[in-house]
Structure formats: structure tokens, C-alpha cells
Design brief:
Elements: H1 4-9, H2 14-31, H3 38-45, H4 49-56, H5 59-69, H6 83-92, H7 96-113, H8 117-144, H9 158-173, H10 179-194
Helix pairs in contact: 2-3, 2-5, 5-8, 6-10, 9-10
Length: 196
């Protein structure tokens, strides 16, 4: 028997779902999470509020699934045969404009999660946990190839280093993250810390 989420989301076509998620992300960039309402989404997406609640249940779930949908490639799908290659391929999946947009969204959500446990829970379940699991799979493959040691204490901090690089680039350098910056950061900071 299919779970409730599968049954709920099966009523909207994939193309329509993509349109709806784009409307959610556009509104999120325009007004921020706190000011985003299901009413505004229903108007922008030309659908009923009842449909939104029936399909997604809540604003946090809708927002996080919209964020997740725009990330079509999982981290652990990068398997080039080397850790450096995997990291570089991971960076190349998003162009500079997209990285700037994503970072802007995440900064806005970082403020909202302090006040909203439902949003934090949805972000962890649908976005952070799957990405972190994928990253650790990638690191495990590197261990199996002998590129990094399993007892390296840096391993548990790799997600923090990568997210930190994205978020603080704007604060320190007053510039958005770019493919060139992240590739250089991985080569200069992450790989040496891992002993790769």
C-alpha cells in the first residue's frame, strides 16, 4: 500500500508540480518565508488553497519540497573514481546564478527556522539529511579507494565546511559563491583537511 504522501502528490502532473514549485520559490525570494502564505502561493500558481493543503499538508512541507525539487542531482550520484573529481562534479551541477539564488534562499530560511520547528524538521528530513547521507556515501567510497583515512576527525565536519563556504562568502567577501570559488575552496581547504 502506498504511503499518504505518495497518494497525495500523485494527483498533480509532474509538469504542473514543477510550475507550482517555481511559483513557491519565486515568492520565497520576493517576500521571505515568514511573509509567504498559502493564499499567495495559490494565487501565483493559479490553484486552490485546498489543493495545496491536500497535496502538501503545510507551508513548511511545500517550501522544502520545492527546494528539494530544484536539486535534481544527489551528491552521491557523483562517482568519478576520485574524491577530488566527485567534489568538482558536485560543484558543476549548479551554475553561478543558481548558486547565488540558492544561497539567498537558504540565508532567508536560516532566520525562519529559529522560530519554526516545523520548518526546521522538514528541512532536515527532506533536504539536509538526504544531502548529508549522500555526502558521507561519497566520502565512504573515497575511504574504500584508500584516498582518505576512516579515522580522520575532519570527516564529521565536511558538511559544515561546505555549507559554511556557501553562506559566509557573501559576509566576508561581499560576493556570491561561484563554481570557481567553491572548486578552489575544496582544493585548498576540504581536501587537505581530509588528507586527500
Amino acid at each position: 500500500m502506498a504511503d499518504a504522501a505518495t497518494v497525495r502528490c500523485s494527483r498533480i502532473t509532474p509538469a504542473r508540480e514543477t510550475e507550482l514549485y517555481a511559483a513557491v520559490l519565486d515568492l520565497l525570494r520576493e517576500v521571505g518565508y515568514d511573509a509567504l502564505t498559502m493564499d499567495a502561493v495559490s494565487v501565483r500558481a493559479r490553484t486552490s488553497k485546498a489543493t495545496l493543503y491536500r497535496q502538501w499538508g503545510s507551508k513548511p512541507e511545500l517550501v522544502v519540497k520545492a527546494l528539494r525539487r530544484q536539486k535534481p542531482v544527489s551528491i552521491d550520484e557523483s562517482d568519478t573514481g576520485s574524491l577530488r573529481g566527485d567534489f568538482h562534479e558536485m560543484v558543476m551541477h549548479a551554475d553561478d546564478y543558481r548558486m547565488e539564488q540558492d544561497t539567498s534562499l537558504m540565508r532567508g530560511l536560516a532566520m525562519a527556522v529559529r522560530e519554526n520547528a516545523d520548518l526546521l524538521g522538514a528541512l532536515r528530513e527532506l533536504l539536509f539529511d538526504p544531502e548529508t547521507i549522500g555526502l558521507y556515501r561519497m566520502l565512504r567510497r573515497a575511504m574504500e579507494r584508500g584516498e582518505i583515512r576512516a579515522d580522520n576527525p575532519t570527516l564529521e565536519y565536511v558538511p559544515h565546511m561546505l555549507v559554511g563556504a556557501l553562506v559566509v562568502r557573501g559576509l566576508i567577501d561581499n560576493q556570491p559563491p561561484t563554481q570557481a570559488f567553491l572548486t578552489s575552496y575544496i582544493d585548498a581547504v576540504v581536501l587537505p583537511a581530509l588528507g586527500a
